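Cross-check.
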Amino acid sequence: MPIFFAALLLLFISPLPSMAMEESKRIDNPEKVYVYVYHLKPPYIEQLELETGLYFELIELFNSFQDKYQFIPQFVPRKRLNREIANDTLDGMILGVHPVWFKDKEKIKFLWTKPLLNDRDEFISPVTKPFNYLGEVSLYNMNIGGVRGYHYFRVAPVLKKEKRS
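Predicted model, tokenized:
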């Protein structure tokens, strides 16, 4: 009878080393996940060649708190990103986006996380001639500077409206 229990115990214990080895393989070979970014401006990307900026620091943080995935940052211009999405060939996730920018305001086309951070565009002006934003009318007859190639989705409709008036 003791031999039977010893054999039974061996049957239960024998999967443990192979399970531990599988877990070890998983940690040694984390699944690669590409994290696409396209905002080539500070503070998000300071120096692309050196991979400095908020996006790279955030991805480093993701990697330092878990072992299952290896998040790999990839800069991709927005037009190429749009093409990858349209062709259904995007093989990762996109960092630093908003549902409105991807025509998914209702969040039904893509899987969205809760926001990781909330930022906003600010208006600055000289102290000697302050600008007080009191609604869209405040922008009429103003010179507005921005980053070429970027769409300011709250400002653009106001500018178009002013031109029609």
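DSSP finds five helices and three strands in the chain. The first helix runs from residue 2 to 13. Passed to J.P. for a second look.
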